[in-house]
Amino acid sequence: MSQVRVRFAPSPTGFFHIGSARTALFNWLYARHTGGKFILRIEDTDKERNSDAFLKVIFDSMRWLGMDWDEGPEVGGDFGPYFQSQRTELYKAKLQELAAKGRAYEKDGAWWLRLEGARSPAYDDHLKKDYEKVDAAPMVLHDMVRGQVARVEDRDFVIFRSNGEPVFHFVNVVDDIEMQITHVIRGEDHLSNTSKHLELFKAFGVKPPIYGHIPLILKTDGPGKMSKRDKGALIEEYQQRRYLPSAVRNYLCLLGWTPADGKEVLPIEEIIKQFEISAVHQSNARFDERKMSHINAQTLRTLPAAEFATLARPILLETKVIDASISDARLTEVLGIVQEKVTSLEHLPEFMGFFFTSDFKKDEGAMANLTKKGGDPVARIRELLPTLEAAAWTEPALEAAFAAVGAARERKPTDYFAPVRFATSGQGGGAHLLGVLRVLGRDTTLARLKSFAG
Ligand code: GLU
Predict the structure, then answer these.
(1) Residue 118: phi, psi to the nearest 5?
(2) Who contacts 197 (Cβ-Cβ below 8 Å, separation ≥6)?
(3) pTM higher than the cut 0.85
(4) pLDDT digits (tens, 9 = 90+) for 150-193
(5) Phi/psi class of residue 33: alpha, beta or left (left: φ > 0; alpha: ψ in -120 to 50)?
(6) Which atom number of ligand 1 is nearest to the Cα of residue 193?
(7) What are the DSSP calls for 392-421, one per residue?
(8) Rounded CA separation 354/420 (Å)
(9) Is any atom of ligand 1 closer than 6 Å to the C-beta of 44?
């Protein structure tokens, strides 16, 4: 069995955003790839900024994305509690351990980590007030993503504040030690903290984990980092917009990582097999909502019909597009022709409402387009009707009917498509027209065409 133990360590101080989800996901993928353990640890030492609502969003979003944790809140494990707010006694004991070793000292009410090295005598007086400086050699970090990174930590730093609360660096390292974390995969914004963390490991006399700092996610336009306030930043949003969690997860995998063969839409089992932290890009990733939407559409297309129907039915019931009397067979028939065209489940009600009512919405823009092109949609439908009435109701027969009428009038068959689509669905686009007519059925189609043509 693999000894790998990784953790996702969010602070519940804000909504669960793309960056957090991607960090969690890379840890989860690494654990699943190596057969190790994925641990969820809640870094909730900042009492004022934490909230249960944020905590709930973290759990919900992670479960929605299918990132199950092997140890952590609501799951348990041998290394708990998994909330830092419940580990205060441990932190105090670990501080005493460092104090006993002479590696922590008290000054101005706070506790400081004493760095090793020669104290710098000529250190600036006004800085000296705040911290002691040492002549330290650069520390080389072998980062799984960044390669070799050299950093210098030359100032003692606070590990317990004067109000008695431990600081982030201290609890983060203590817990990584206590929870026997082997690999720390986290955002590049933490790279600058790593030298402090390595100093703490050294002070405790414990071998540090292997680090991997993953690239930032930039906003769609411009140089800035994606923030919680940017459009598309929150995972909840995709949940509400009825994205497929598997598609969102697939997209998140691509923020800083590319599958070896370049094929980007792939099942999670395949991603788990291929995923390597060492293959994570060093360059920043850029958030691209269009690509996310494209992956969602492509994933929808590959769903088995029965699964698609299971996802669609509650949405269509809720929006009153169908009622409970619609059989599975009928629903599957209609969905069969829209599945390859619809880009999100959210659009289904609007996209397919006309199959279930003749009182459908008419898209004014589409109507304007029909006449703008100099066509006379009513005339086209009148020309078509006798041939259509005589046709067998199969797609090849319908296609032949359009072709015959077009040929007789020296028109393209497509001149008839837009008027027929509009008259039967009120739309200017949608699923393959002949499929729409077949599934609508002869009686409904002809009735709608006649009512349109007056
Ligand atoms: N609580 C920290 C954060 O949310 C975790 C840092 C780490 O993964 O070490 O950024």
Answers:
(1) -80, 130
(2) 169, 172, 173, 176, 208
(3) yes
(4) 988 989 999 999 999 999 999 999 999 999 999 999 999 999 99
(5) alpha
(6) 9
(7) -SSHHHHHHHHHHHHHHTT--THHHHHHHH
(8) 13
(9) no
